[in-house]
Design a protein that fits this description.
The protein contains 13 helices and eight strands. Strands 1, 2, 3, 4, 5, 6, 7 and 8 form an eight-stranded mixed beta sheet that branches. The chain has three domains: 187 residues, Four Helix Bundle (Hemerythrin (Met), subunit A), CATH 1.20.120; 34 residues; 203 residues, Nucleotide cyclase, GGDEF domain (Alpha-Beta Plaits, 2-Layer Sandwich). Helix 3 runs antiparallel to helix 4, helix 5 packs parallel to helix 6 and helix 10 packs antiparallel against helix 11.
Length: 539
């Protein structure tokens, strides 16, 4: 029985734990012995860490709320300081505007004094609303400010009355009255303005002190938050690592035990048993493994029998693939797939059948080979044969063979077509067009261009696997094969010559003109030869 495995860097006493963490073995064994699923154990570990994070989050929110209150307090005090400075400016401005009015007799300064007084009163109300019970006693301070402001207003009215009296008096009396107004301003109004400025200085100083205290409290709260986050982070990390270690090893140990047992079973030891402490899915896995190992011997025997049968099946499949490979050499890929899948029923035994045979032969190949490098000539030939082969497959022809630079194709077998003659003629026309396209891309002299003569014959031939046991070919033989070959040899450059039967089968599909007659061995009468000029309608 296997209890554990000795790993590099782990204890060799069967615990499977790293050497430096052996003290945690009781905790690992305790977690393994808990009668709960692996999912529940993992969920409990995650929940513990989540609760710590939640506690840290709640405490952080409390501290952040306090810090937010501190920020609001700082904003309130900063607003008070700004208002106090503005009020101080308003008081100073009134004294300045008063002096300018008395010296320049410019009455617009009196309007500025009135505006400054209104602004001072509005700011005083705003500051009083912003003040909190935690500030200096509100009633006494603001009563003093309002009393000073009232005295300032009385002095202001007194000086203003003298100023207006002076402007209304005769010119010779104005200097004396203006001087009197200036004396009242200097003795009464100006000193009171200094009292208001001192009040604003006092309010500003108190607010600045409170701002300093608020900033200190904000810094303290920030420190508290940093310490709290640090403590909770370290505690959460430590607990997460401890739980992660213990839970993971409570899973790793039985997995390693089962893995070792599986390796030995794979080596042929089907009597291997395992023992683990876990009361969860891993314990059930170990029990199932023990139950399974007892049946593997019988299954192994059955598997060997199945393997022998499979080997036989593989050999059959290889033979079928070989037949498929051979078939695709003759037919277009789609036809070959249809035959192999059983969609089309074909027979490759030798038999007589009405087919259409096609030959094409290159003209000018030998003269070109005398002036062009062999590599270039081979490239031209490969391009030509590749393009022509695609056209053969496109029209459903069976590619019989390449004879040097000649191509032999037949139509109507192994797939039977009623229009095999029409397919052959249409293929020949498309080949002629394709050759013209290829010629335009070949850098050769006009007199050295490759041309092709094509011949087509329709009639009964012998088709099937023909040859010896050592070598077989799927091909056609007969008079019409010879006729198609001779028509190809006789055709001029770009000419398509066909037999009379081919023309009859094509009907009105193409234009054909009789050009000659030909004697054929074994045929009692001459055979008429026709030239196909062009296609006249869509098939």
């Amino acid at each position: 029985m296997v209890v554990g495995t000795a790993q590099l860097g782990t204890r060799g006493d069967g615990s499977g734990l790293p050497r430096f963490t052996g003290i945690l073995r009781p905790l690992v064994d305790g977690i393994a012995g808990i009668k709960a699923s692996v999912h529940t154990k993992l969920l409990a570990g995650f929940l513990t860490g989540a609760l710590l994070l939640l506690g840290m989050g709640v405490l952080s929110l409390v501290v952040i709320e306090r810090m937010s209150q501190r920020v609001s307090e700082l904003n309130r005090l900063e607003t008070k300081v700004d208002l106090a400075r503005q009020m101080e400016y308003d008081v100073t401005g009134q004294s300045h505007y008063r002096a300018m009015a008395l010296l320049t007799k410019d009455s617009t300064n009196n309007d500025k004094i009135a505006n400054a007084k209104q602004q001072f009163a509005a700011n005083l109300d705003s500051i009083e609303k912003l003040s909190s019970p935690g500030d200096r006693p509100r009633s006494a301070f603001f009563a003093k400010v309002r009393d000073h402001n009232a005295q300032f207003a009385v002095s202001n009215d007194k000086v203003l009355a003298l100023y207006q009296q002076a402007l209304a008096a005769p010119p010779d009396q104005q200097p004396a009255l203006l001087q009197k107004a200036l004396d009242v301003h200097l003795k009464e109004e100006h000193p009171i303005s200094h009292l208001l400025e001192m009040d604003m200085h006092e309010l500003e100083a108190a607010s600045l002190k409170q701002m300093t205290d608020a900033r200190a409290a904000f810094a303290a709260d920030k420190t508290t938050l940093e310490i709290t986050v640090g403590i909770f982070s370290i505690a959460s990390l430590g607990l997460a690592m401890l739980l992660g270690f213990c839970i993971s090893w409570a899973i790793i140990r039985p997995v390693r035990t089962v893995d070792t047992a599986l390796a030995q079973i794979a080596g042929g030891d089907f009597d291997r048993k395992v023992r683990v402490r876990n009361q969860d899915e891993l314990g059930a896995l170990a029990r199932n493994l023990n139950a399974t190992s007892g049946q593997l011997s019988t299954l192994y025997t059955e598997l060997k029998l199945l393997n022998d049968k499979l080997q036989q099946k593989v050999e059959e499949q290889i033979e079928q693939l070989k037949r498929a490979s051979d078939l695709k050499r003759y037919l277009s890929p789609q036809l070959a797939e249809s035959i192999l899948s059983g969609t089309l029923d074909v027979n490759v035994n030798s038999r007589r059948k009405n087919l259409t045979v096609f030959f094409s032969d290159i003209r000018g190949f030998t003269p070109m080979s005398e002036h062009i490098e062999p590599e270039e000539l081979t490239d031209f030939l490969n391009q030509y044969l590749s393009a022509m082969t695609e056209i053969v497959f496109k029209h459903g022809g069976t590619l019989d063979k390449y004879i040097g630079d000649a191509i032999m194709v037949f139509f109507g077998d192994p797939i039977t077509y009623d229009d095999h003659a029409q397919r052959a003629v249409l293929m020949a026309l498309e080949m002629r067009v394709k050759l013209s396209e290829l010629q335009s891309s070949w850098w050769v002299d006009q007199g050295e261009r490759l041309t092709v003569g094509m011949g087509i014959s329709t009639g009964y031939v012998t088709v099937g696997n023909i040859g010896s046991p050592a070598r077989m070919e799927y091909t056609v033989v007969g008079n019409h094969v010879n006729l198609a070959s001779r028509l190809s040899n006789r055709a001029l450059a770009g000419q398509i010559l066909v037999s009379e039967r081919t023309v009859v089968h094509c009907g009105k599909l193409v234009e054909a003109a009789e050009v000659d007659e030909m004697e054929l061995e074994g045929v009692s009468r001459p055979i008429k030869i026709y030239e196909i000029s062009e296609k006249v309608q869509t098939r």
